[in-house]
Structures are given as C-alpha cells and as structure tokens.
Specification:
- By secondary structure, the protein is mainly alpha-helical.
- The chain folds into 2 domains: 68 residues, no CATH class; 63 residues.
- It is 82% helix and 0% strand.
- Helix 1 crosses helix 2 and helix 1 packs across helix 3.
- The N and C termini lie far apart (46 Å).
- The relative contact order is 0.06.
- This is LrgA.
- It is a multi-pass membrane protein.
- Its main location: membrane.
Length: 136
C-alpha cells in the first residue's frame, strides 16, 4: 500500500510539473517572448518554494524521481553526436571548449549562491539565538 501511495505521489507531482510547463509554454507563446517556458516555470516554482506558498514535500517525490532518472535525459545528445559526426570533427574542439567553460561557469555560480545562502542562514540563526537570550 505504501508503494502504491508513493507511486501515485510521484505520478501526480510529475503531472503537475508537466502542467506547469505546458501553461508556461502557452504563456510564452502568447506573449511572444524568446525565453523558454521551462525557464519561466522553473522561476515560478522557485518563487513558490521560496515564499513557502508551495511546501517542499509537495514536489519532493517527483523531483527525487526525476533526479534519479537523470541519465535518461542524456540519451538524445548521444544520438545527436552519432548523427552529426562531421560537425563534431570540424568544430568539436570549439564545442567542447564551450561545454567545459559553460559547465565551469554554472558550477561557480551555483557554489557562490550556495555560499551566500549558507552565510545568510548562519546570520539569521545567530540573530534568533541572540534575540531569544541564548548564546552563539
């Protein structure tokens, strides 16, 4: 019974993710924006989680499953590499340099944001302790 409930949670959360993506794509197409609907949807999701309008447990099962199956999302790029071998031979080094540089930039940006959030949380916890009469 617990497995069925967990499976239903994952399916429901994935359906909600897909629904959010679909609505954001409609919105972007209607507005004529060049930014992808998935980016808008991710921004909305982050905003809802950050403001605690949407609790983490409401998306945890679906997001955990998606992260667990992440390898499946890399199959289409591998097929593309096999399909466009000539392009890879001609511009492979430039593509590789772009991928490596982009990855390094994303990792650096993520590390910086995590550090800032961690520092902010430490300060807030210290402030709460001082206000409650505790010691740091």
């Amino acid at each position: 019974m617990a497995k069925t409930t967990s499976f239903c949670k994952v399916i429901l959360q994935l359906a909600l993710f897909c629904g959010l993506l679909w609505l954001c794509n409609l919105w972007v197409n209607h507005a004529g924006w060049s930014i992808p609907g998935s980016v808008i949807g991710l921004g909305i999701l982050v905003f809802l989680l950050a403001t605690r309008v949407l609790p983490v447990r409401a998306v945890q099962a679906g997001s955990t499953w998606l992260l667990g199956e992440l390898l499946l999302f890399f199959i289409p790029p591998v097929v593309s590499i096999l399909k466009y071998q000539m392009l890879i031979r001609e511009d492979g080094l430039m593509i590789l340099a772009s991928v490596v540089l982009g990855t390094m930039m994303v990792l650096t940006g993520t590390a910086w944001v995590v550090d800032r959030v961690f520092t902010l949380e430490q300060r807030l916890n210290e402030r709460r302790l001082l206000e409650s009469g505790g010691h740091v």
